[in-house]
Amino acid sequence: xxxxxxxxxxxxxxxxxxxxxxxxxxxxxxxxxxxxxxxxxxxxxxxxxxxxxxxxxxxxxxxxxxxxxxxxxxxxxxxxxxxxxxxxxxxxxxxxxxxxxxxxxxxxxxxxxxxxxxxxxxxxxxxxxxxxxxxxxxxxxxxxxxxxxxxxxxxxxxxxxxxxxxxxxxxxxxxxxxxxxxxxxxxxxxxxxxxxxxxxxxxxxxxxxxxxxxxxxxxxxxxxxxxxxxxxxxxxxxxxxxxxxxxxxxxxxxxxxxxxxxxxxxxxxxxxxxxxxxxxxxxxxxxxxxxxxxxxxxxxxxxxxxxxxxxxxxxxxxxxxxxxxxxxxxxxxxxxxxxxxxxxxxxxxxxxxxxxxxxxxxxxxxxxxxxxxxxxxxxx
Length: 380
Known about the structure:
Elements: E1 2-9, H1 15-25, E2 32-36, H2 46-50, E3 55-58, H3 68-83, E4 87-91, H4 98-109, E5 114-124, H5 128-134, H6 136-144, E6 148-152, H7 159-172, E7 177-179, H8 188-196, H9 201-215, H10 287-290, E8 292-298, H11 304-316, E9 322-331, E10 338-344, E11 347-353, E12 359-366, H12 370-376
Parallel strand pairs: 1-4, 1-5, 2-3, 2-4, 5-6, 6-7
Antiparallel strand pairs: 8-12, 9-10, 9-12, 10-11
Helix pairs in contact: 1-8, 3-4, 5-6
């Protein structure tokens, strides 16, 4: 099986720099073929990449997006049969349509043992808005079809401009992983992982909450290694961990006359509490049906003092709604320093870590106040 990665990007976006980092730091041990398609007579980058020992197939007679789609497929088949590489990296013309290149790869995959592993688009942070306006048909196609979008030159661009770029990109692609941290601060291995394994932080947190929702009411044990105080044990029954499980910050307790607190968003799966109330039966619901999630991507720095203040409110107050879980990583404002945080009700942790591909925050809960969360983390 040969993996095929397409690294697209408008002219001058930084595709070659990105590819070079992958080749040197992430896939140096693999048998790789790099296919370039330059728009014009000469493949300017071919010489420098040949020095890395990678076989290059240059096709300089035209643009993949138009007359060369058929020829490109034939050439790709030749490369696969001749070299039998573990991985093929395709660097299309900067003015090509990513969807056309992807179609050509899928056509080849119908006959040979290959898989379209990833489609990456490199975007110059300083020119995103301008290119989107002036070259929308081609530029937006590259964004809309990418699984990973890497913003280049974010180390020299204004942070607010980069944040605006992210929001513009999200209008065209809701699901792609967007990398805003300068690539020089990320390892090739990190970049390869981003390409091959899309970010799933929100899904992971929802699974955690669903796990708690279904297995930890009434103090049931699950045999896992989670801290018991991460989960909500209704009616203050013991789970054997000696922690206090009072839901102090869920202030919408409804009285039904039985003397128990009924926290309406994570009640006991329809088990009777002696009061005859059955309207809180969530037994057949998934977490994403019962709870809501809020998330954002941001490169706006947040120092430890400011983050601590936000997390205090998230953990102990209902200022932002009924928060069950929160997680994130943000640049601190100091060069190369990032702050990672993890939060459950009445408990949180902040630690320093390596730069991540972009600043991210995810909050899971009920009745979340999104406007307040946006303000807290600098979106508005």
